[in-house]
Amino acid sequence: MSSSAFLQGVLGASSLALGACVGVFWQPNRTISAAIMAFGSGTLLCAIAFEITLPVYRESGFLPLLLGFLLGGTLFTGLTEYIDQHGGFLRKPASSRRYLFEHRQEQTSDILNRIAHIEVIQHLSEGERQAIIPFLKPVFAQPGDILCQEGEPGDHFYMVIHGEADVIKDRKLVNMMKTGEVFGEMSLLTGEPRSATVIARTPMELYQLNREDFNHVLALFPHLAWAISRSLAKRLRFATDSRVAAEHNLDRWRQNLLNQVELDLLLKEDSSTLEGLLQRSAPVAIVVGTLIDNIPESAVIGMNVGESHFGWSFLLAVFISNFPEALSSAVGMKQAGTKTIQILGLWLGVVVLSGLCAAAGYSLKSSTPELFTGLAQAVAGGAILAMLASTMMPEAYELGGGSVSFSTILGFLFGFLIASASL
């Protein structure tokens, strides 16, 4: 029977290898992926209800069922969160998006705190500040570093986060840049060479915008254009003896700013952040996370080998639900630079390990009291249900919309039809 449990565990997990092959060489469209995922969710829900919940309730009562489901859900949630934080987030689209969102939230909060004292930023709304963040590039300078050279073309706009710099014109010190100030915008707006040299006086931390991003940001946020025009006014009044000339130049530059404003432009996705996160993924963590997803399913298969009440609906549900998970994971691993042979080898390894988990489940049942076996099955059921609620069903709906409801219903009825044969 142990060998039979191993074979059934391998059979249920074999769709992982199949899904990985499809993900490496071809990716189906969103509608097909959503339909498969929703159908698998429906069959798993039916299997949990009729092949885990009902038998455990009949044999052990409600209390072990309650404790087991709560413990299984807690363990699954805690372990998957730990795996995601250690490089396994690419194994599912939902975990990838959640990790990316949390990473951006942390990153955004940190940068918002750093730029809060920048004068031109203070005139923007909270939403506008957050939208600018993807364009900002951190720059660090040491005393004596030249940030801008008089007479050379200007390609960058700078915000001083921390530190001081000397502004030199015609070899004379004319000003000092301090924390919270900006510089470099004149050359970008006029297309003329830099009007002065800026040299770091102390260690400095800055944020940099290149010419293209600077123009794009101005087009998106007219409030920033007015804020920069005010900064220009202060600088011009300091640099020239003629206030009339300063106001004349200010009006001309303000007009240049406003001419670039296009309110209907949409902020595009910053691909550099995503690429960086892909490099932080860990293939081993992805496989460990997937194995954690499959341990409850394989254990249930093993613990029910030879039982009269256990039909093929659970095994079929596991097979169907594993396919889209491996497909999406393989796509993510390939994007992260993992070699094809390594991807396929890892997933074949997961299939074999799932078979071993099923054999372990059979051994556990044969050597432990019936109450403990029922509790173990309830734990597995809670983990599977947590997986469905946190990943498969939300992913299916996001990919396919309301139409996945019918696929889920069909999957549930199909699972019931198979399960009813053994009832």
How does this structure look, described?
Helix content is 69%, strand content 9%. It has 423 residues and is of the alpha+beta class. It folds into two domains: 2-102 and 274-420, no CATH class; 116-271, Sandwich (Jelly Rolls). Helix 2 (30-60) crosses helix 12 (313-335), helix 2 crosses helix 15 (404-420) and helix 11 (283-303) runs parallel beside helix 13. Residues 237-247 and 253-275 have low confidence and may be disordered.
Radius of gyration: 30 Å
Give me the side-by-side strand order of the main sheet: 1-8-3-6
Main pleated-sheet profile: 4 strands, antiparallel
Can you count the helices? 15
Q: Estimate nothing, just give the exact number of structural domains.
A: 2
The helix content is 55-70%
Extended strand count: 8
Q: Would you list the SSEs in sequence order as H and E?
A: HHHHHEEEEEEHEEHHHHHHHHH
Overall average residue pLDDT:
76
Low-confidence stretches: 237-247, 253-275
Topology at a glance:
Elements: H1 2-25, H2 30-60, H3 62-88, H4 93-115, H5 126-132, E1 137-141, E2 146-148, E3 156-162, E4 165-169, E5 172-177, E6 182-183, H6 185-190, E7 197-200, E8 204-210, H7 211-220, H8 222-239, H9 243-259, H10 271-279, H11 283-303, H12 313-335, H13 340-367, H14 370-400, H15 404-420
Antiparallel strand pairs: 1-8, 2-7, 3-6, 3-8, 4-5, 4-7
